[in-house]
Model the fold of this input.
Amino acid sequence: IAGITQAPTSQILAAGRRMTLRCTQDMRHNAMYWYRQDLGLGLRLIHYSNTAGTTGKGEVPDGYSVSRANTDDFPLTLASAVPSQTSVYFCASSEDGGATDTQYFGPGTRLTVL
Amino acid sequence: GQNIDQPTEMTATEGAIVQINCTYQTSGFNGLFWYQQHAGEAPTFLSYNVLDGLEEKGRFSSFLSRSKGYSYLLLKELQMKDSASYLCAVRDSNYQLIWGAGTKLIIKP
Done:
C-alpha cells in the first residue's frame, strides 16, 4: 500500500542522547517535510526538502538536522536531545511543493525526552 | 506575524450541521487547506480553496473569502466518526503551510 512510514512509533530518550527519526515514502513525491505538533499549537515546520539533494529550514529548525540523499527517505536527527523536544513528530510528502500541492502525512513518532 | 485563528473546541449533536470558522493573517496567500485529525492519528486532507466561494464534497463543504481572510468548514449530517480535530492551514508566499491550532469537534448522540 502506497504511503508514508515513520519509525519508531514512539520513543523515550534521555536528554543529551542522539536520535534519528526515520521517514520513507513510496509515492515518488519530490517534496518532504518534518513537523512537530504540541498541545495547543498548530503544526510547526522544522525542515523541508523540495527535491532530493536539497533541504531548507522551517519555522523551528534549531536542534534538528535533516538529509535527503534520495527521493524516498528523509531522516530527522536530534544531535543532543533536550526535554523541550518532547513532541509528536510528523513526516509529510507532496508531489512538488507547489501552490496547489497537497501534503500527505505519516503516522507520527511520539518522542519523550527526559 | 502570521496568524491562523480557529475555535479551540466545539460541540454538536449527531445528525446536525456544524460550521467551523478560520480567520487568517499571512504573508501572501496561495490557498487554504482543511485537514481532519482523529486523536492519536495523522492529519488527513479534506479540502482546498484558492478562489472565493464554496467547494462541496459530499457531507463536507469549505468556503473562502480572501478579502476577509476567512474560511469555514461545514459538516452536514454529523456522524459520531466525525469527532476529531479540524485543522486550518494557509499556504503563504513562500509556499509553506501555516497551521492553526485546530478545532476539537465533539459529537454527542
